Fold this sequence. Notes:
The structure holds two protein chains of two kinds.
Chain A: E1 2-6, E2 9-13, H1 21-28, E3 47-50, E4 53-56, H2 62-65, E5 69-71, H3 84-91, H4 101-114, H5 120-126, H6 136-148
Parallel strand pairs in A: 1-5
Antiparallel strand pairs in A: 1-2, 3-4, 3-5
Helix pairs in contact in A: 3-6
Chain B: E1 36-38, E2 53-55, E3 58-60, E4 66-69, H1 79-91, E5 98-103, H2 105-110, H3 130-152, E6 159-162, E7 165-168, E8 173-176, H4 177-185, E9 233-239, E10 246-250, E11 261-267, E12 271-276, H5 279-288, E13 291-294, H6 303-313, E14 320-325, H7 328-334, E15 337-345, E16 357-363, E17 366-371, H8 376-387, E18 394-398, H9 407-410, H10 413-422, E19 430-433, H11 436-441, E20 449-457, E21 463-472, H12 475-479, E22 511-518, H13 533-550, H14 555-562, H15 567-580, E23 591-599, E24 602-612, E25 618-628, H16 635-654, E26 660-661, E27 664-665, E28 683-688, H17 703-718
Parallel strand pairs in B: 4-5, 9-19, 17-18, 21-22, 25-28
Antiparallel strand pairs in B: 1-5, 2-3, 3-4, 6-7, 7-8, 9-12, 10-13, 11-12, 14-22, 15-20, 16-17, 16-19, 20-21, 23-24, 24-25, 26-27
Amino acid sequence: MVKLNINGKTQDVDVDPSTPLLWALRENAGLTGTKYGCGIAQCGACTVHIDGRAARSCSVPVSSAMGKQITTIEGLAVNGKLHPVQQVWLDKDVPQCGYCQSGMMMAVAALLKQKPKPTDADIDKAITNICRCGTYSRVREGIHAAAKA
Amino acid sequence: MNYMPKMDRRSFLVTSAAAGLALGFNIPDNAEAAGMQTGMSAQLPAQMPVAPEINAWVVINPDDTVVIRIARVDMGQGTLTGLAQLVAEELECDWSKVTWDYPTPGLNLSRKRIWQNYQTAGSQGIRQSQKYVREGGAAARMMLIQAAANEWKVPVGECTVDKGVITHTASKRTTTYGKVAAAAAKLNAPAEPKLKDPKDWKIAGKPVKRLDTADKITGKQIYGIDIKLPGMLNAAIRQSPVIGNKIKSFDAAAVEKMPGVKKVVQVGDDAAAVVADTWYHAKTAIEALPIVWEETASNKVSSETIAAVLKEGLTADTKFVGNKQGDALAELGKAAKKIEAVYGYPYQNHAPMEPMNCTALWTADKCEVWSPSQNAETSLAVCAAASGLPVAQCESYRMSLGGGFGRRASSHDFVQQAVLIAKQMPGTPIKLIWSREEDMLRGRFHPISQAKLTGGLDDKGNLTSLHMRISSQSIVANLIPQLLKDGMDSFVFQGLNPGGTEGAFGYDIPNLLIDHSMRNPHITPGFWRGVNNNQNAIYLECFMDELANAAGQDPLEFRRKLMAKFPKHLGTLNAVAEKIGWGTKPPEGVFRGIAQHMGYGSYVAAASEVSVSKSGALKIHRIVAATNCGHAVNPQQIQYQIEGSFVYGLSALLYGECTVAGGKIEQENFDTYNVMRMDEMPVVESIIMPSNDFWGGVGEPTIFVAAPSVLNAIFAATGKRIRTFPLKNHDLRSA
Lengths: 149, 735
Ligand code: FES
Ligand code: FES
């Protein structure tokens, strides 16, 4: 049993500390919004925030997230109000299948926190998540729109 | 949170067998009902009042909300919204009150396939169901208005409807769909509902937003991989890395004591699985499970041996002819100038973001699967076959798909395996998830192929003869051999056919021969977004550029001369040429390429602008794409499909390659099977130019022209003609 702070709540999670955070979130904490795509830090589908920074949770053991603030897609909206990135994603119909989009939005939200007005070059560098449906043009447009919001 | 699709809203009893099924089994009499899944189950109260079903396609709730039934699958391509638009258009309902549900295939069977075909592949979701879904909407509208007229005792002709509000003009009485739905449901359906002229469309044809975005931005959307059922266990699988090898033995005792492990089972004859409390535990144990495989001749196969087999097919005798005009072989001998080139296209994996998965629950008298599938009817058929139970005792619930691209239509191996595992643990729901590595090794790969093209020019540089010999693996021979005609796979000739509405060759060449040698290695092929159009368009459109170059002519003008008889093909080509500014000077260091093709009923063209740096780095600056898909049901979603198809097609061009060594696919994850990311995404400008006289597809067609237009631009930039793929294997520094 380990204690994890997820989306502002500290909870006991019955998991070995060596377990990748992705699986602890999905299977032990019941938060399936964070997705599995590759398991080797390649695709970004599993992106969450750890202390406000984007992290690929498939490659972070639970032990290194203990004592830190973990935010998942389920915790991105605050008090029922969508995060600006979510709002733009909804307004602009960014997702296709949507499977990559939890990770995509978490990566984008972290970028905007560090760089509220990112350039295209900033975006190219920071957002390396894979979207097989090919929403990259929508994502880029969405980031610029969210930066204005 | 436990998630159970709602299945209790309606119950049906069938009295006669459903006939004419392409599912490979008979439907017994008295099949008990299955279910209906609400599209917005998260938002609906647990106990919905039973709302009147006006007909199979339309249910109207007392609060005027409209539930539209969707048989085809939405895997991100927007079909759900497009189909709902078509029904709503004819229904004349309030679009803001539209929701949807997904009838299960079990219910479809028990209702004599009232929702018809569930297959969502070949860009057919809308074009092949548009007529009957529109008729469903129109019939429901007529019944609803009739019900109001009956209530008011006025002639139906005196009543009008707008956004679900019915008005009797003379008396100024109004009512709503919700109020008359119960009465309308009791009326007989009109025999031949008249459909609107698309010119008068108000909902269809408009860029309305997708219906299904809300849950995708909050993490609420339940994909197959996310389902949780009471008492559920998780399974991880290891299939023979060499396709076709069988299991000789495995040492269950070596992993049985590992954390969380409940059972180690064999799955069919070529896989073993570990069932555990969590999937992470199951995966950890399966990776440690010692398995011995029975080797076969396939273990000696490599990319090199496969290439040699295909190469032999380039010159071998064959009787499989896809297109023939005049006598190409004889005329080639007489040509003033003869040009020849050999191209090749590799195996590629679909790699949808959500790996294959399926959840199954088996008991002695019932088998249910929760399956992210592109065809829920096939999923049900596979479930029944694997369960050993009659299909009437089986059901396949429709889960959201994290992408499909043809993988989830080509094979339902994941369904079969989930059932085979669940059968060994009766009463326990088992969620089987493939790791990415399993997904990569046991794909249904884009088939491998080579082509030899020989063209003859006369002394004025006119193309008088063309021979295109394709040597390739047949998808159909592997997956649906009953579709072979005297051994011939006509799918091989996608986009190269002499006429027809599906994929017609767009050049008038007096002497033409397109033929095929079938060579089938052991690697399992599948339908991969665009399918054989992908390599056919590259071969033909790049070779057209080679011919134009040999003739000393502009590639666009060279094509135009051959296209007078194909105005629709020419229409999209001209549109992209104009928009990209063909014939004007591009920016310094930027070069252009162009391509056109027809497939899945639509005419598409693209023009690209690229630059190649001194060190050989490619930058695709801009691609203009045009599609004439006949009717454009939702221009915004079409634009997104164009963009998405380009990402898929360009990923394949830049990186997509699965190689074979020791009989096994060598790429096991995205580190060795790279795909395009944000930084490589070009600006895509879409021209949606429906001619409004046919119905074409949109999910795939534009993918065909992305790669050849870029390749032709690379040639313009570097003088290098790339004929094998992906580009990562080539040095693009100028020759
Ligand atoms: S699942 Fe973590 S990066 Fe792909
Ligand atoms: S929206 Fe489907 S993978 Fe990105």
